[in-house]
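notes to self, project folder thing:

trying the whole complex as one job this time. last attempt i did each chain seperately and stitching them together was a nightmare. two parts in total, labels are on each line so i dont mix them up again. if this works i'll redo the older ones the same way
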Amino acid sequence: MSRKPLSVDPRLVLLHIAVISVLTLWVATIPAAGLLVAITAAALLGLGSPRSCVYLLAAWAMLVGVRALLVAQPAASSWRLMLPTISSFARLAPLTGAYFLFMAALPVSRFLAALQWLRVPIQVTLPLAVMLRFIPTLHVEFGFIRDALRTRGLPIGPLALLRSPIRTSELVVVPLIHRCVSVAEELSAAAVTRAIENPRPRGARVPLRWRRGDTVYGVCLLAGTLAVAYLNMKAGM
Amino acid sequence: MSRPSHRGLTVRDLVTIGIFSAVVFIISIASGMVTAIHPDVYVFDPVVLALLGAIFFLLIAVRTHKTGAFFLMCAIFGIIWAVLGGWTVLVAMLAAGVIGEFLVSRTRYRSITALGAAWTLFALANFVGIFALAWIAPSSYLASGEKTGQSSAYAQGILDVLDGPLVWVSLGATVVSAIVGIGVSRLILAKHFGPEAR
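result (full assembly):
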């Protein structure tokens, strides 16, 4: 029998994302950042997103592995040039977890409901929600454009960009703009159909209510935050 | 909770701002990743966004023509960067948003000069936001770089670049790129979307 994924109050998910953001800036050691990644991965697993959990852990393992290899290189090695970039990625990996968390636990309607509860105006929440949801789609859109250009035998890739930057950029940017425009039309039509312009406060199919699962999630989040803080301070001594 | 009225930004406008801001944000992330290879290159990070992001800003302007679009774009871009740790970007973006909005609203988003000035402000705010921490608190910037596993030479390299003439070259290049970006974008939009897109 499969276990039903945990459903968490969107306000708590927003708090979790804020905690990850603050801790990511504060943690100064790779082990503390690793613990933060592990906690986020556990949350993703509990929220029924095992694929995101695996992606996050795999990305973290890869970054830490590559970083260890770079650190082992002689100081004069040109490979060491990549160390700042890889270190920054390893440091910011928990934020990737926050993004996965956003995607897994905050559908647009729940995100808007949470921000509505926080009295954030829709002029901010709507573009923010669209932006955050559109970012992963961009990769897919770019893939379509790349395939279409290849089908027509048009050059695409870093080499083509170096050979003729303006032409290659135009070949990519113009279809991307057309695609973005049509997505904007479709999304706004869908939003209007769902009565987003209705001046009355939005209703929610699943009302915002604190449940027992939220308490469990909140306690785990608090414990995890304290553990990360402890590990970070211990390493800093 | 306030709702958009038809006089102000409509749902279509808000969605358009969200989508094109996403593209601008992705360009800024990609440019940061590529230029982080060396401090001398990293200082030119804002130049890439100033050049490549202009067309998306111009599209927002062309498709909305309404007060608040530029400020909203700046605010959303800043909020996302603040969540990622770049709170200085948010502060700079809010300031640029207010001034830029004043400039473009006066001409109802129809003057290319005002749009160019607003985009240049956006690019400069991005420039200031990226390097503000290193200017304001160099010692803590250096310490945070060392703690996070970057080599101390890299963090020191960025501080050295910011003290040297290269930062002024980058600042000038950012302004020029923003202006050139708007000019080229205008031509591309006119070519592919008709003269009304100018």
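what i see at first glance: Chain B touches chain A through 48 residues (CB under 8 Å).
need to look closer tmrw
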